[in-house]
Design goal:
Rossmann fold, seven-stranded parallel β-sheet, about 325 residues, globular, 13 strands, 2 domains, alpha/beta
Amino acid sequence: MDNIFIVKSPLQIINSLEAIEYFKLNHNILVIIHDNDAQNTTQMNSLTSMYNWKKIIILESIKKFKFFRDVSFIKKLSKEQYNYMFLSNITSIHKLLLANIKRKKTFYIDDGIETISRYNNQFLPNKLNNYRVKQLRYLLTGLKIHIKDNINLFTYFDLKDFRTSKVIKNDLNHFKKKYLVDTKIDEHIYILGQPLVSLNFLKEEDYFKYLDYIISAYDNNIIYIPHRTEIISDRLKSYISDKFEIKDLHMPIELYFLQNNIYPSHIIGFITTAFFTLKKLYSKSNFSYIYISNNKILKNKKAIMDTYSMIETLNINKIKVDEEDEKN
């Protein structure tokens, strides 16, 4: 019996490969749902070649006739029965897949710190069956919209079983065994950038104030790794010097280190899932996170504070920049 993986990002493919190894799965079908992000698409296409999939199905990003395309696609998949189904994201099409695809077991895999919010706000209170009026139109096509089965988690995060659902820890053991050999210590400071400004989580002047602090606080040369959705602005480019390099990887940071036999000595970031993945891979590295004070966060303050609580379970260094933080 086949297993089916529905993915939308490079990290989801990495976690799918880990799941294949952990659960010892064969006959695996990959469904890639593309968005309009060219770099995201490039990274995903590259990662698909790391495994010999039984079949790869591509859903391109479209605007016209998307409703009819999705209905046809789900009806086609619903004709078969699957052993495992893995997915991340809970968009309209994901809910339809959960409601209509016949399978024995379902697992939600990580795609960043969104797992924490999903766990607290949807899985625990059992709110997956909240619908928008627009979704009712699928009933007219013969599709179901009610999700009945339990969703288990395959995750990096230290979460607990809930109701009859299981939480299984993803320790990235497959990638450790495959790549963590003959690695060399890299003494650069790696800063993991994030699109906090473009997503309106943080003012531009505050983001670069934090960046200025890091540059002045360390003597080591710095390599800045922009997030795949981050805009590399002229202001960011102005930092380029003998001490500061911007390296646009075109691949997940985890894979870059592994494939280049790099063992990073120090990694600094803001609010990033990479702490959880890289900490599992590079336990001897120094990790630091830049704490953004509550009054600097422009939106989703509770979610960010919840994420800080999870980051602190990793026992990594907290960098305080704002003076008011010293009073906390």
